[in-house]
Specification:
Length: about 220
């Protein structure tokens, strides 16, 4: 099923969510935001009152995790059971907790199985799957594998703009902390063999979409 995957990895604030979504829409493909799944799991752990530093508590939460997430780029709602968590998973409280949850390797194995199942069952001809370890772990055999990067300054500025926050330095700090924690688990800052780098530092949104579409054209 890896041949159905357009794999896009990148760090926080690289623009990979909005770019992946736009590319999926343009091509009529599905879209899977794997970060949203990890965020929903972190929300679920916090909701249960469990300690995100307690690996067995995190694993227990992952084993009882009724995630509902669609593949439609125009329907970004995420549910855990009956609770809609679409907005809640963007909360700074969740952002701060998510790396701890994503660090547990048995959790990653379970979550990855769920991602692969979703792609296999997808009603789309292909699915743009976006995350940190899609090009290397989830779908290393995908025909199209892209690492979307941007300089730390550009990423912080974009993220701060998104949040309409004044303090770019504080945002830069939070991103640096999360990237640091995340890259201890998966390396998403250097491209693995065969992975194409798209650096969006000097590209605007449409130029970045075109750069990604050009790679897909060449590879798919
Ligand atoms: O992409 P986003 O910033 O929403 O991801 C949230 C978090 O989920 C990341 O900081 C990382 O801890 C985790 N994640 C991951 N592997 C992925 C996608 C996200 O560990 N494939």
């Amino acid at each position: 099923n890896a041949d159905k995957v357009i794999a896009i990895d990148g760090p926080a604030g690289s623009g990979k969510s909005s770019i992946s979504k736009a590319v999926a829409r343009r091509l009529g493909y599905g879209y899977l935001d794997t970060g949203a799944a990890y965020r929903a799991l972190a929300w679920h752990v916090l909701e249960r009152g469990a300690d995100t530093a307690d690996e067995s508590a995190v694993l227990a939460a992952a084993d009882d995790f009724p995630l509902r997430q669609g593949l439609d780029a125009d329907d970004r709602r995420v549910f855990v059971g009956d609770a809609e968590v679409t907005d809640a998973i963007r909360d700074p409280r969740v952002s701060a907790a998510v790396s701890g949850v994503a660090r547990v390797l048995d959790v990653r194995a379970r979550v990855n199985d769920a991602f692969r199942r979703m792609v296999a069952e997808a009603a789309f001809p292909a699915v743009v799957v976006e995350g940190r370890d899609i090009t290397t772990v989830v779908a290393p055999d995908a025909p199209v594998r892209i690492l979307l990067t941007a300089s730390p300054e550009v990423r912080a500025a974009r993220r701060a703009g998104e949040l309409s926050e004044q303090d770019v330095a504080a945002v830069a700090d939070a991103i640096r902390r999360r990237d640091g924690a995340d890259s201890a688990v998966v390396d998403f800052l250097t491209a693995a063999e065969g992975v194409e780098v798209v650096d969006s530092s000097d590209l605007d949104f449409d130029q970045t979409i075109d750069a990604v579409l050009a790679v897909i054209d060449r590879r798919a």
